[in-house]
Amino acid sequence: MVKMLWYHSQESTASIPPGTCGLPLIGETLQFMASINSGKGFYDFVRIRGLRTNLFGETHVFVSSTESAKAILNNELGKFTKRYIRSIAELVGDQSILCASYQHHKMIRSHLANLFSTNSISMFIKQFDKLMVETLSGWEHGSTVVIHDEALKITCKAICKMLISLESGPELEMLQNEVAQVCEAMLAFPLRLPWTRFYKGLQARKRIINILEKAISERRRGIDTYHEDFLQHMLIEDDKASSDESPRLTDAEIKDNILTMIIAGQDTTASAITWMVKFLDENQEVLETLRNEQMHIAKKASPKSCLTLEDLGEMPYASKDESKPYSFLAFGMGGRTCLGMNMAKAMMLVFLHRFITTYRWKVTNSDSSTEKWALFSTLRSGCPVQVTRIPDDTHCH
């Protein structure tokens, strides 16, 4: 959830949108959360309660016209800046790209952009594909797996390998658990009491930052070996910047943005993959058409070869819907467009290809109810499926 702040001179109350502010402090937060996790969604909330409300202790205004959306997204005349609600901002950190002011955001974005270049994504696709093959080979024929859990594990492993070369062992498992606690706290009311989700999320954040501080310290002292990852790239940039006095990321900025990218890279993608599998199961004709397309790609490839960026471009049916950038802003728009947009799409296509050409499946719990306090729309069941391995003679890799 995003709150937009508009710096403006005092205007008459006639221009204030209709709505109520609910109870002191919490406002209409509980009603809003209940609505977005119901079948009706927040549109019903706005219809009943108006365009202005109080959420998480702050006044929020919903805008729906094309003109208003364009003004906000294009940030005309610098009237708007983006700020997440307090609980999210404290959990990802003040130096996160999600919380940065306009100029600060531009500086951080310029440093992170190289991570999402075409060349970087091409290399990442091969790494992620290897992880997918390894993961799927461990699923037993006829067993039941929970898609959301498996998608979280593999996306976390892939993102952590790319960012800090962490891909296995107890430290990765611990990091994944800590990140899960941070995510669970993001929509919690910001009370710093030991039994609250928000407090537990803050403690998890501290432990994650300690892991990152240790990694940075060891690499700077030469204790750790050289790695081809984002952190190493940032430290090399830091050394160059120190010599020519060009802008650089501080350690605090590096740590906050690594945490931000882990959260953004695993949670959103895992949720999307889960819904993708559920909807395909509910539309068998679409599933079979898609499987035929993916099998064709699999048969063309040499044995044990990895998927490439070019392979993903040969999946027209997997991306058959035309983009509607003015009505569906899944990745944002304008100067704040999601940096990892193409990487997220690539991860979903690789998962889809490997899963659909390796297994047939049946969803064993079709309940569509969602987690109440999840930052992203997440199936409460996690989408459990029973998998049946497709014989190897039907595809080549």
Automatic annotation (TrEMBL):
Gene Ontology molecular function terms on file: heme binding; iron ion binding; monooxygenase activity; oxidoreductase activity, acting on paired donors, with incorporation or reduction of molecular oxygen
GO CC terms in record: membrane
InterPro entries documented for this protein: Cyt_P450, Cyt_P450_CS, Cyt_P450_sf
Subcellular location: Membrane
Highest taxon in the source lineage: Eukaryota
Membrane topology: Single-pass membrane protein
GO BP: brassinosteroid biosynthetic process; brassinosteroid homeostasis; sterol metabolic process
PROSITE patterns (alphabetical): CYTOCHROME_P450
A family per Pfam: p450
The entry's keywords: Heme, Iron, Membrane, Metal-binding, Monooxygenase, Oxidoreductase, Transmembrane, Transmembrane helix
Annotated family: Belongs to the cytochrome P450 family.
Protein name per Swiss-Prot or TrEMBL: Uncharacterized protein
Phylogenetic lineage: Eukaryota, Viridiplantae, Streptophyta, Embryophyta, Tracheophyta
